[in-house]
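Hello,

Following up on my earlier ticket. Below are the two sequence lines again, exactly as submitted.
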Amino acid sequence: DAGVTQSPTHLIKTRGQHVTLRCSPISGHKSVSWYQQVLGQGPQFIFQYYEKEERGRGNFPDRFSARQFPNYSSELNVNALLLGDSALYLCASSLIAEAFFGQGTRLTVV
Amino acid sequence: GENVEQHPSTLSVQEGDSAVIKCTYSDSASNYFPWYKQELGKRPQLIIDIRSNVGEKKDQRIAVTLNKTAKHFSLHITETQPEDSAVYFCAASINQAGTALIFGKGTTLSVSS
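Thanks for your patience. The regenerated structure is below:
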């Protein structure tokens, strides 16, 4: 029973670069959401996708974008990286309400 | 938009004691309230949730209560054990297709034996 999988698990990028994070939801789940978790804080909502359409967007700049593919996997893209983008990026998939999280991608911007 | 406040930020109890964590939310349209446990370096794990048409839900040592009028909900852990030590997050969402959760800032629970 495969859970939510994210890749890569760790990533180091330089300021100004671009990054793409990937998420595969639990089989049968059509909704994927992305969260940013800074050390010591709760996850902050970035995007929600359902059936390949954006259904919600949190308070993040336009440098953040995402998409969902026909197989329900998803990508989160961040352009022009800033030091403050360093965080754990979590993906969650859900069928109806319960959201199950992946192990996250630890992004470090130097 | 929705805002979730969580208290206390840290909680220390002796093994066997009870622990209570409280959250308030601002958007009266929210109708789904999950609780997550996150151990150091691991992903948040769903431990219990409650929907707005229910006032209380229990699962073994864990219970959640919801007061929609006051817009607050609470997590109760009885007979705490050292393995309950972790960060606990409450969240709220409008339960439409898929889930966009707004989280509280977390409570670090320490259970000493």
